[in-house]
Amino acid sequence: MNVESKQAVDLFGPAQIGNLNLQNRIVMAPMTRSRALNHIPNSIMADYYSQRGSAGLIITEGTSPSPNGLGYSRIPGIFSKEQVEGWKLTTKAVHEKGAKIFIQLMHTGRVGTPVNLPKGGEVVGPSSIQVKGETWTDTKGQQPYAVPREMNSDDIKHAIGEYVQAAKNAVEAGFDGVELHAANGYLLEQFLNANSNQRTDSYGGSNENRNRFVIEVARAVSNAIGKDKVGIRISPYGVFNDTGAFDGIEEQYEILSKELNSIGLVYAHIVNHSSMGAPVVPESVIQKIRKEFKNILILSGGYDKKRAQSDLEDGKGELVAFGRPFIANPDFVIRLKKDQTFAEADQSKFYTPGAEGYSDYPSLN
Ligand SMILES: Cc1cc2nc3c(=O)[nH]c(=O)nc-3n(C[C@H](O)[C@H](O)[C@H](O)COP(=O)(O)O)c2cc1C
């Protein structure tokens, strides 16, 4: 795009998504922090999120709509009464700071072990294909990922119902909307990706069929809480959790974007983990998504102030998400604006329980 087509848009200026007014175009990216003991959100989580309330939009850590989706230790859920009550602390505290907040609905699917699941929970996925490697459990240390049970059509209907109920619960808990986590190899992407979905029924075997589950979830959730309250995160070409590229991937995301656009989702949020060592996401697929999906696009991955401002001006997206910089800099937005120095996060505390390395980073401002 040439200089003439630059748009006058300010990273720190107000923006709108659906009916929501954002105080700026900066999004706090969803980040799992594993502080939810017994999978119930608590007051230190409310502290952590409210400290970061100078963002325009906060997207919470991945939160399970189902007991089956709690594949990791201490990730929160949004399917029980206690979880809804727990999340109210966060939504209230964040709104008092002026930010809006979406909850990321993350069903871990095959990325899990029964050791981490509550009683009655089960590791399920589109196909019985195990993720390579091991995952942390608080009771038995490292454990191999389980071989998931292939979901039958009743399981699929049940899971769609769980997303719908979780979205309604999110609204009750005070969230401004939900982000469907269809990225990074969790359940929704497990259906999208030909390496994890080898079904031969109407949910696998072709682009349209692999898209079907995600589209059905998006439509059902939009019908339940309103399309203006539903965004989605996608990661074409991502490799996390044994995903990776496959034949026809760009065409599939093109079709998916068109469908999501016709449902009217409020935003699409594109993952790019090349700054974390993942393969570069080709510009070609991003352009296809941009062309078919007419609503808000959220950019993310390794952004700094200059590139964020420049990509907004080039019309590549409307909002920019920042992840890691928010961890050690609760007042990240103000530091970014004033060109102040950033604190470095202690990576050894990314997923440990308690306030340390979480809600105890000081603000400069
Ligand atoms: C500690 C940590 C936890 C993360 N958890 C999630 C998550 O729950 N859901 C998600 O979509 N992405 C997750 N991500 C990815 C981030 O949202 C973001 O895409 C990534 O950090 C790249 O952006 P950055 O370069 O601004 O950090 C996580 C990243 C980190 C560092």
Automatic annotation (TrEMBL):
Task: Using the record's annotation, list all stretches that form the NADH:flavin oxidoreductase/NADH oxidase N-terminal domain.
Answer: 10-339
Highest taxon of the lineage: Bacteria
Task: Kindly give the InterPro entries that the UniProt entry links to this protein.
Answer: Aldolase_TIM, OxRdtase_FMN_N, Oye-like
One Pfam assignment: Oxidored_FMN
Where does the secretion signal sit in this chain? none
Q: Mind telling me what this protein is named? A: Alkene reductase
Q: What organism is recorded for this protein?
A: Leptospira ainlahdjerensis
